[in-house]
Amino acid sequence: MNDALRVGVIGAGWMGHVHARAYQRVAHHYPDLARRPILTAVADSVTSAAEALTRAFAATHGELTAYADWRELLADPSIEAVSVTAPNFLHREIGVAVAEAGKHLWIEKPVGLAREDAVAVRDAVAANGVVGIVGFNYRNVPAVARARRLISSGAIGAPTHARVQLFTDYAAHPGSPLSWRFALDRGGHGVLGDLASHGVDLVRFVLGDIDALVAQTAVHIPQRPIASAQGHYSVIDPSTPGLEFGAVENEDYVVALLRMRSGVLAVCEANRAAVGDQNNYALEVHGTQGLIRWDFRRPGELSVCSTNTYAGAPTATVFSEPGDGEYAAFQPGAGIAMGYDDTKVVEAMQFVRAISGEQVSPAPASLDDAVASATALDAIVTSHTEGKWVSLS
Ligand SMILES: NC(=O)c1ccc[n+]([C@@H]2O[C@H](COP(=O)([O-])OP(=O)(O)OC[C@H]3O[C@@H](n4cnc5c(N)ncnc54)[C@H](O)[C@@H]3O)[C@@H](O)[C@H]2O)c1
User: Fold this and answer.
1) What is the tens place of the pLDDT at every residue in 241-270?
2) Where in the sequence of the chain do the CATH 3.40.50.720 domains occur?
3) How far apart are CA 178 and CA 187, in angstroms?
4) Which residues are CB-contacts of 4 (< 8 A; sequence separation ≥ 6)?
5) Which pTM was predicted?
6) Which has the least CB within 10 A, 75, 220, 264, 305?
7) What separation in Å is there between the alpha carbon of 108 and the centre of ligand 1?
8) DSSP class of 36
9) Sequence-ordered list of residues with C-beta below 8 angstroms from that of 262, at least 6 positions apart, any chain
10) Does the beta carbon of 86 sit less than 6 angstroms from any atom of ligand 1?
11) What is the distance in A from the centroid of ligand 1 to the CA of 212?
12) Domain covering 138-336+363-391 assigned CATH 3.30.160.150 in the classification
């Protein structure tokens, strides 16, 4: 192990902590890395709550310089790489600034509020010759990597139709406060950027590009309490005396029918306010000779039917094992569970290797992938508004 790679994190919330942990763990799982990331600095916004948060972040993750303004972090010439884990409305401004500062960029999905934001970040990364990767981490689940390999090898025959579903309840409580997530100018199109972006990326990862789509969206909880608490899972008692409510400006639910370039039809459905469902994310692909089904909550398992007998064929559960994606970097034998944070350790590895000029296979999710996802999300909004199929070509 070798040259230190000084990194900073912008946004000290949930994802900021996950990226920070990934930088600290990545060398444990990949001791051959040419460069060792050293988390050096964190920046969060200038509110007093954020200052306390930033200090707590620094205390958790070691000797860090804590900045109240991300521009100060970018001004540190010793920092070569930056994670952007701030809210969606800041992705474009900060992502472009990171690239223009000549620093490598690991940015969270969905990369802005709309396609034009993702394009701006992609172009800035390309123009400045830095590495840019995107946090579509479900690609890094070994069972998903195996699903992709099985599908491309013909194990389920020719794919016929697919379904990706992302149902969760972090916004199901009517007391979930009116954070940036529910405002169009800061959270973009709600569940679209939050969850459907992952769904679109997963479908593209296993089945290729989308040709056209038709979609409908809905808001299930039109008003939420105005409060200072802003976290993903915060809840305010909606009966609190004097509590004021504001309008939710973006989508709780989306269902989209995707026609892939291959002709395969796929349903992408996402709900952030799904009572009774906690991170119930699933991917299912049917083919002429079988099926593949994956459930995020049982990440190490894959249901597989691969047959030449057609009707009556059994579906078996197979467990992730060395050879499936990056599984071998975490566990030595089949069926030992990996966790959510591990997918981000894989992303950190991909980021560091790309910075060192090493080949990473499969390649990490790129800013082109973010643009493709954002293109589909914009098309979903257009389809809902105009009530028609929208071509993505
Ligand atoms: N890949 C995934 O599975 C996944 C999961 C959750 C969130 N995300 C993405 O990560 C991003 C952050 O989500 P989160 O859940 O961590 O949100 P969060 O609200 O927990 O954290 C966001 C942080 O950014 C800070 N912030 C706000 N303005 C800032 C500014 N001007 N400068 C610096 N920091 C600022 C906030 O104070 C907060 O600490 C979002 O874009 C989200 O889409 C990705």
Assistant:
1) 889 999 999 999 999 999 999 999 999 999
2) 3-137
3) 11
4) 35, 36, 37, 38
5) 0.95
6) 75
7) 8
8) E
9) 159, 207, 208
10) yes
11) 30
12) no
